[in-house]
Amino acid sequence: MKYLTKRADGRWQGSKTIDGKRVFVYARTQMECYEKLKRLNTKRKKSPKIQSVADFAIYYLETYKKGNVADRTYKDYLAIARGHLNIATPLNKVTTMQMQELINRLPATRIRTAVYQLIRQIFRKAHELDLIKKDISQFLECGRIQKAERRALNLEEQRALVGSLRDDTFGRRVMFYLCTGARPSEFATVRKDELRPGWVKINGTKTAKATRWVKISERMYRMLLNAPEEFFRFDSKKFRIRLQKTCAAAGIDYDVDIYTLRHTFATNLYIIGVPEKDRQEYMGHVSGSPMTNDVYTTFTPDVKAENIYDIYGDFFPKF
User: Fold this and answer.
1) Any residues with CB less than 8 A from the CB of 284 and at least 6 apart, and which?
2) Can you spell out the DSSP letters for 84-149?
3) Does residue 171 sit in the same domain as residue 247?
4) pTM
5) Alpha-carbon gap, residue 158 to 271, rounded angstroms
6) CA distance 147 to 144
7) Which of 21, 26, 28 is nearest to 36 (CA)?
């Protein structure tokens, strides 16, 4: 029903009942007020009825995340929702204890943090939309996360990885990391006009000390010199995923990433007998830093320098 009345201040007031609620409009004339009422929707847009945590998780991502975050991030969110939040319990019936037990069952790694953070976002939004009376996620605890312990690839793992590589763009990039110890983002800093026979300049991005010259073999020098410019520009995430798949196919039961290759390079320098000061320089560490030995070097007493060169051949420089 529509109601038009003239107010004491001379304006016209109109009202309409929509979904059981009275909505008011105001105008200078009766006709203008009437037209404003006509333009009002007869029914307000309702939020969809969400029956379960799983349903609302997908609704939340499609409504508030899709298009507002990177496509890869959105896909990661979807994977978490479908893999860990496929809960049939009604949204307004789920308990803090139920959600805390879900978090506690997850390994104490980055996946637990990711699930916890998404749960917090979902329940905060549900509370804002008046779908739940209380945001139960505010009482959840993520718990202590164990940082993944990195190590160097052992001799057999290196042999398996290098032996599985082909002489293609991906294989050459892996060899570059294994033979220079570059950080993930440092590959893109290499410039062909800064190459010198036996040396590559890595323009480090972490600290001023990170910019350094690293000794390379003649074969590595020629490979970099003849590489197209796009060889140095690539998606490091896609590279890491392919690296992990390659290592898994080679029988390496370890979560390998680019820092694993960096640890391996540091360890190989130690095995070959490169002096500590030079190793710190090649790794981009401050002189005297314990990082090179204590963090990046995995001591293996039964491995000799000839074992390293047997795997890498003329890709690895002579020191």
Assistant:
1) 183, 202, 204, 206, 207, 209, 210, 211, 212
2) H----S-TTT--HHHHHHHHHHS-TTHHHHHHHHHHHHHHHHHHHTTSSSS-GGGG----PPPPPP
3) yes
4) 0.57
5) 14
6) 9
7) 26
Mean pLDDT throughout 31-50? 70
Q: Which domain holds residue 16?
A: 2-39
Amino acid at 187: F
Q: Which pLDDT tens digit goes with each residue over 79-92?
A: 999 989 999 999 99
- Is 119 in contact with 80 (CB distance < 8 Å)? no
Amino acid at 129: L
Query: Is the residue at 79 inside a domain?
Result: yes
Per the listing, tokens 């037209």 go with 35
Which ranges constitute the DSSP H helices of the chain?
A: 30-39, 53-60, 71-84, 96-105, 110-128, 155-164, 169-180, 218-226, 236-249, 258-272, 276-283, 305-312
Domain assignment present for residue 150? The answer is: no
Which among 123, 108, 152 has a CA at the least distance from the CA of 257? 152
Question: What is the spatial distance between Cα 186 and Cα 258, in angstroms, rounded to a whole number?
Answer: 11
Largest Cα separation within the chain, whole Å, is 99
User: Is residue 146 one of the residues assigned to a domain?
Assistant: no
* Angle (CA) 17 18 20, round 5°: 75
Q: What are 117's two structure tokens?
A: 């953070």
CB 127 within 8 A of CB 114: no
Interval 93-123: pLDDT, tens: 999 999 999 999 987 877 889 999 999 999 9
Clarify whether residues 182 and 298 are in a common domain: yes
At 72, list the tokens: 């890869």
Q: Are 57 and 84 in contact (CB under 8 A)?
A: no
The residue type at 26:
Y
